[in-house]
Fold these 2 entries.
Entry 1:
Amino acid sequence: MLKNRPMKALRMVMAAAAVAGIITGCGYRVHGRQSLPFTEVRIAAVENTTYEPKLQDRLHRALTEEFLRQGVHVSSAAGNTLSCAVRRFDIIELSEKKGFVTEYRILIDAACRLMDASGKVTGTAAVTSPFIVSFAASEDFGRLISGKEAAEERATADLATEIVGNFIYR
């Protein structure tokens, strides 16, 4: 029984090394707060060049939540300023049944730039919502609108994750 202990320990060490090698080989990295390029940011008012109402408010809120989730404090007095403009908002038909649309996809594009305290642009990003966010059509207009709004929330949250990742983990 004592003879097996060193062998089990060796197997566990080798398994841990293999897992670590696989994770680092796939491009995953662990980032701590001290490795962030900045710890505080101001988010300027989001410009909405689309006809979709409230999209700028949703993206501003989603950006704030994502920066906070990543450990970056959001403050109106911060030296770094993020400014974004929503350039495109499309609702695309995904599926149809008997001549009626049954499912839609939401697609959002935004252009963003990060400026330091002196106003110098330190980074730019043109981002498209990275995941397919869809919602089902409904004959009930209230359900259709609530489904669309929930899908917009998910799409702007996904977009904010992509934007923040572009500036923090470049």
Entry 2:
Amino acid sequence: MLLKIEDLHVEVGDRLLLKGIDLEIGEGETHILFGPNGSGKSSLVMAIIGHPGYKVIDGRIIFKGIDITEKPTAERVKLGIGVVFQNPPKIYGIRLRELINRISGKRERGDDILKLLDRLNITENLLNRHVNVGFSGGEIKRCEIAQALAMNSDFLILDEPDSGVDVENLELIGRELSKVLEKKSALIITHHGYILRYLKPTKAHVMIQGTIICHGDPDQILNQIMREGYRWCEKCRLMRRS
């Protein structure tokens, strides 16, 4: 098992955001996590990467057989966890080219990185600009994907990769991810599931109010959500509690 989360409870300040999360992702598996806004999906991302503002009060996070619950973010990255954030920050003073070269070790992977940038339409103009400064929504997403893939991580977490992008950018991102995820493991967070046009996840999960309430076939769960919305999931949660 590549990633195993056991009975995870997480709070920020005095608010309990995650309540008993159990999740297992194996080698070579891509899982997709659905949920409405505010359901706790991004909080789970922050907990997995070890953001210091998200305090684990119970449960464990195990990656590659190692308990990383208390490990700092840098150690988790070294173990092979890569993340694409939903709303990455602007970084003044660092050009995109410099950042990608630094995180990829370009001397060893120069040709591969150049091909990756070309496939994602990362132009010289973008590479010479400060990271995310003045970028459009689609440019930010493509550049975040490029950074994550340049790290060559074993496990990718993609937080809303299909949010705020037009059809053309979604196609570029989706096609590149479909190639990369044939050989890697991933957890993809999404609200509306557009990215499934290009990916074939192994398993889907639905999160409601900080709890994963069901697991199943990705297409079946997405179709159910498209027909009845997340009201169906909330109804299911209440039935389980009763």
